[in-house]
Write a structure and sequence with these properties.
The complex is a heterotrimer. Chain B has 18 helices and no strands. By secondary structure, chain B is an all-alpha fold. In chain C, α3 packs parallel to α5, α4 crosses α5 and α5 packs parallel to α6. The chains are: A mainly alpha, B mainly alpha, C alpha/beta.
Chain lengths: ~180, ~475, ~230
């Protein structure tokens, strides 16, 4: 995911400073990994270097010094291009779970037990996300981002269920290869 | 030309249809076997009655017949017997109609699925027609074999006209069965999805309306003919018109009864549903409101038998009183038993009709339980007591029937009183007549109660497993 | 009447049940805590529904025991079981639990009427429950005239209207899309937690199971793996 473009998008609403951008990001994308302040700072500097944003000014109203940034014309054009561009439908899935199943068969481990434990962990996370989204007063952004995560975890779970049912065949295949 | 050829090749022709009909029936529900079995019985009954009529109608003049207390010996009384037998066909048809409903939902879905799978409408009609037609043929053959055997023992050389009648009836019963079955499937053929979703017509069908109007017109014609000229004086024409006119009139009465019951059930359902204090009454009332015509269809024949039965009891009492008077005055041409045996025979015929009608009612109630078995099982699972569901089932029969039987009883008693006033110079009170509707009502409740054991079995949670 | 938290109101041990030659349950054991929402997942034919039928006293197991509030359900007479299902349990199926001829309001009022409440009061209380599940406006509609989600929320109202201690739900969202599923499951779990009602939830959908506090998985008629208590 492109942090550059997300920050550009947040700047589209008007000039803003680093800390404010981080806060708004975490608020808008509740289930995403929270942005580190350092990451916000370096990304803003790169945007300025590439001419997509510029420094609007510096203020220090009774606190630490804050630099305010604003998107440039080029920045708006780049944002529009990115937003229109379709996301590649996951061409290479890095499937850690599958890798662990195969490795545990190769090394004579208990792939079934691993899948059961993994399933439990997935269910636990899904219960947490469901609790977040059904909590009274949860806003739609929270519900939708939790749903996004839930659907992905559910896809993993389905895959684990079918894989668990076919472990014997998989073991034979991996061992004979 | 080539199109027709490929269609024929693809559908496999009539032989393929027979095989398909057989496969579908063989692999189907147990209840569909009930339908086939009861249809055979009903068809045998219809064919048996038809055969007796077919033998009696062409007889002309004096005979000596060992059965029927001499009533079959003379043309006049023989005509009366023919009329009575023709009337008995009405409840038999009613019974056949009820039989067709057993497993009908399942069968209709099956045929609709066949239609969705690409079968042409004529093919679906042929398969359905074959199924019913073959069952009717089996019943007809059964009745014909027995009837001919009995006939040959009593009458060594039956007239050729009697033979022609026998053949006609034997073939007519399966043909009519197939035709009616094909006709009743017009909805499946027209809209297979509609049947899968089980949509129901809101009121009486168009066919029903047309039939009622036709019956009304023919009744008017007969009444007018009775005043203007005397069609009964023409020997053959009179012979045919007499029984047919009474037959048509009875059908008209039953049609009106259907209308009344349907209208009344709907009103009663609405009124009760809004006031019901108990769960059983509420369920029964809402079911009446949802499909008032179901009760009407089931109860039409019951009402007809009630009118005829009540009327007959009144007439019988008046006649017997008359006979007694005449006997005392020694003015009877024949023995009293000659006249009274005719009355007994008519009474027996009405008794038979009542039995058939009650059997049809029992079949109808059982079918209604079987169709709803999954929903009923779900209610029990949710803790609705079986007793409540049983009471609702009985109320569904009892509620719409109560006023209808009362009206039929009053009508029948009226006929009895009117007839008695014609023969006697003093007013005869047919005290036994009001007992008939009471007895009919009790019998109907008993008939409905016969499906309570089925209900008990249906409420088994295993039914929850089927959608 | 109310057991304290953690006390087991419903427990089953070593249940077996055969449907003809198929063995649906082959020694299943399960415990349901007071106010606990427990999901039972598993493939089709793993015995989930039969387990629910045995636990709710709809079916008697061939062997094994079911204990509810100190009573052996598998030994109670049918009359008592029926009473219990009416007063202490509520059931929701995938479909078919509403009487098609009755309005939503009357469907919900029915269990109260069976318990002897007058029609007027039963309807008033039914209305409150429909309100709670967001289908008050559909009160005069019949099941066939409602959407699947509205019908299932009505069914939930019917299951909960008598204030049961346990609700048995067999694939309550099996015929619904994801949005209707979310509404039905949220309504069910919120109400169950507020009223401290235990729920036994049968589902093949992990996203539905995630609404529960805990989940167990059935394979071939036995409980394969007990989940972690939340």
């Amino acid at each position: 995911m492109s942090t550059r473009h997300i920050l550009l998008g947040l700047l589209a609403a008007g000039p803003s400073h680093g800390y404010d951008l981080k806060r708004r990001h975490d608020e808008r994308f509740p289930q995403a990994r929270p942005l580190a302040y350092g990451q916000v700072y370096t990304t803003l500097q790169r945007l300025v270097r590439d001419g997509l944003a510029r420094i609007e000014g510096t203020e220090s109203e009774g606190g630490p010094e804050r630099t305010t940034y604003r998107a440039t014309e080029d920045g708006s054009r780049e944002l529009a291009r990115w937003a229109r561009e379709i996301a590649p439908p996951a061409p290479f899935v890095t499937n850690e779970i599958f890798a662990k199943v195969v490795v545990s068969i190769l090394s004579g481990g208990d792939a079934g037990a691993y899948l059961r434990a993994q399933r439990e962990a997935h269910m636990e996370r899904m219960r947490e996300l469901t609790a977040v989204k059904t909590a009274k007063g949860a806003d739609l952004a929270t519900v939708l981002s939790a749903d996004y995560a839930l659907n992905h975890l559910d896809a993993d779970l389905r895959w684990m269920t079918t894989t668990a049912a076919r472990l014997t065949t998989l073991t034979a295949e991996v061992d004979s290869a | 030309m080539s199109d027709a050829k490929t269609t024929r090749a693809r559908t496999g022709g009539p032989a393929g249809d027979v095989r398909l009909a057989w496969l579908l029936t063989k692999g189907s529900d147990r209840r569909e076997w009930w339908r086939v079995g009861l249809t055979v019985v009903g068809a045998a009954g219809a064919a048996g009655l038809g055969l007796v009529i077919a033998v009696l109608v062409p007889m002309d003049g004096q005979y000596h017949i060992g059965v029927g207390g001499g009533l079959l010996d003379q043309p006049g009384t023989r005509d009366g017997v023919v009329v009575a037998l023709t009337l008995l066909l009405v409840p038999v048809f009613g019974f056949l109609g009820q039989c067709a409903r057993i497993g009908a939902v399942h069968r209709d879905r099956r045929l609709a699925a066949l239609r969705l799978a690409g079968a042409a409408p004529p093919q679906v009609r042929r398969i359905a027609g074959l199924e019913t037609g073959l069952a009717c043929l089996a019943g007809s053959v059964l009745a014909t074999v027995v009837s001919v055997a009995v006939l040959l023992r009593m009458w060594h050389h039956p007239a050729p006209l009697a033979w022609a009648g026998i053949v006609t009836v034997a073939l007519l019963v399966p043909a009519a069965g197939a035709a009616v079955s094909t006709l009743s499937l017009r909805r499946v053929v027209a809209s297979p999805l509609g049947v899968v979703r089980r949509t129901r017509p809101a009121g009486p069908g168009r066919l029903f309306l047309v039939a009622t109007v036709l019956l009304g017109v023919s009744a008017l014609f007969v009444t007018a003919a009775a005043f203007v000229g005397d069609p009964f004086s023409l020997p053959l024409f009179g012979l045919a018109v007499g029984p047919l006119a009474v037959f048509a009139l009875c059908l008209l009465v039953s049609a009106v009864a259907v209308w009344l019951t349907g209208w009344w059930s709907g009103r009663l359902g609405e009124a009760l549903a809004s006031r019901a204090g108990s769960a059983a009454v509420l369920i029964a009332a809402e079911r009446l409101r949802a499909d008032p015509w179901a009760a009407a269809r089931t109860h039409a024949a019951v009402l007809l038998v009630t009118v005829v039965g009540t009327g007959f009891v009144g007439v019988r009492q008046a006649l017997l009183a008359d006979l007694a008077t005449l006997h005392r005055e020694h003015s009877l041409a024949m023995d009293v038993s000659y006249y009274s045996s005719g009355l007994h025979l008519t009474g027996a015929a009405i008794g038979v009709a009542l039995t058939i009608v009650i059997a049809a009612l029992a079949v109808g109630t059982a079918e209604s339980v079987a169709t709803r078995r999954r929903g009923l099982a779900a209610q029990t699972a949710a803790g609705v007591p079986r007793a409540v569901l049983g009471r609702a089932l009985l109320l569904e029969t009892a509620l719409p029937l109560l006023p209808a039987v009362a009206v039929a009883g009053v009508g029948g008693t009226g006929i009895g009183v009117w007839y008695a006033s014609l023969t006697a110079d003093h007013l005869v009170v047919p005290y036994a007549a009001p007992l008939v509707p009471l007895a009919v009502y009790a019998c109907c409740l008993l008939a409905a109660a016969t499906s309570l054991p089925l209900l008990r079995r249906t409420l088994h949670p295993a039914e929850l497993r089927y959608a | 009447m109310n057991n304290g938290d953690g006390k087991v109101p419903l427990a089953a041990r070593g249940l077996t049940k055969a449907h003809g030659r198929t063995e649906a349950l082959r020694g299943a054991s399960v415990e349901l805590g007071a106010g606990e929402i427990l999901a039972v997942t598993g493939a089709s034919g793993s015995g989930k529904s039969t387990l629910l039928h045995c636990l709710a006293g709809i079916v008697r197991p061939d062997a094994g025991e079911v204990t509810y509030a100190g009573e052996r359900l598998d030994r109670l007479p049918e009359r008592r079981l029926s009473e219990l299902r009416r007063s202490d349990f509520g059931v929701v199926f995938q479909f078919g639990q509403l009487i098609p001829e009755l309005t939503a309001l009357d469907n919900v009022a029915l269990p109260l009427m069976l318990a002897g409440t007058s029609r007027g009061e039963a309807r008033a209380r039914a209305g409150e429950w429909l309100e709670r599940f967001g289908v008050r406006g559909q009160g005069e509609l019949r099941p066939g005239e409602m959407s699947g989600g509205q019908a299932q929320r009505t069914a939930l109202a019917r299951a909960l209207v008598t204030g049961p201690r346990i609700v048995f739900a067999d694939e309550p969202t099996g015929a619904l899309d994801s949005l209707a599923t979310e509404q039905v499951m949220t309504s069910l779990t919120h109400t169950a937690r507020e009223t401290h009602t235990a729920v036994l939830l049968i589902t093949h959908d992990a996203q539905v199971a995630a609404y529960a506090d805990r989940d167990i998985r059935m394979t071939d008629g036995v409980v394969a793996a007990a989940g972690v208590t939340a």
